[in-house]
Specification:
heterodimer, A: 13 helices, globular, B: mainly alpha, 7 helices, 77% helix
Chain lengths: 252, 119
Amino acid sequence: MEYIITFLDKNGLVFAFLITGLIMYFSERISKTLTRGKIPGSAISIFMGLVLAYFAGLETLGKKGIADIPGFSGFEIMGGPMFRDFAIVSTAMGASFAIIKKTGPIGVLSLFLGVIISFAAGVIIAYVMGITDAESLTTIGAGACTFVVGPVTGTALGASSDIIAISIAAGVVKSILVTIGTPLIAPYIGLKTPQSAMIFGGLMGTTSGVAAGLAATDPKLVPYGAMTATFYTGLGCLMCPSVLYFLMRAIL
Amino acid sequence: MLLRGVALLAACFVSGQILGETLGRLLGIQANVGGVGFAMLFLILSQNELEKRGLFHLEMGEGVHFWSKMYIPIIVAMSSVQNVRVAFSNGLLALLAGIIPVIACLALMPLLSKLAPKD
């Protein structure tokens, strides 16, 4: 047994690929059978990741989730900031300035408003609930943008792992809510044209949630919403650890 | 060709992150300021530039696409190494911070739709 754990730790990254693949496979099955595709597999697998990290934390009393379990140390590499940021940057490919230009100033406005309002709402809630330092408040505000902006901001500002976990959890809640809620609310907010989809993507930002939610509303709207939503994470990653963080430091 | 795409992505990543780190130093904080955002901008700009000159091969794009498809798995791995046990004692905060901003943004939707230019 001992030599197997040593082997798994030595080949940690490859083992992490395998386990993550299994998590995503079962999440996809759960998504299709239990929720009839209403909650996307990606949202379920992220949630399952958080659940696994929770139980691993109970078991090991460590800070690094399942990476604290012997044999699973590779998750620290796969889920670490290097691969994460590398993958996020890659999603920018194909997003063209020409299409964003066509959206006109209103698309850009919705992007900025989406980031700033989500951030402000997140910060206010965190503050009301007793968090007072600028780094933690900024990280949770960033998490209210997306589950990517939160950890990127938190890592950049040196926020603690539990605050980063809250920011991810907030982003995941948002993603699930947008996925489930979009088709339900679409008739009431006039979500039926490409323009409105672009505004929606800009305001909501959570690419996985917007893409899945629009797919359930009207598949024709997906590329428009996803297009602006793609820029949201970049804008959030740009604004949260910089101007919005400085703003928080100035206020506090 | 495949690796050229990965190398292009890596070049954008490194330059963007270093710019972010440098900006952080210049601004006097020990933090990376928007490095990921800059890297994304570099990738979009360099792709557009390469396409204009006819230097962007399909296979180069595949090298980048692989990583954009790895994005969700990596996020899954990332969520599984977080300190969720401690975060769970703040579960209500995460729930509210996920729900309230969505409602706040949705409230703006009809207003912005009115401002949007019609076809």
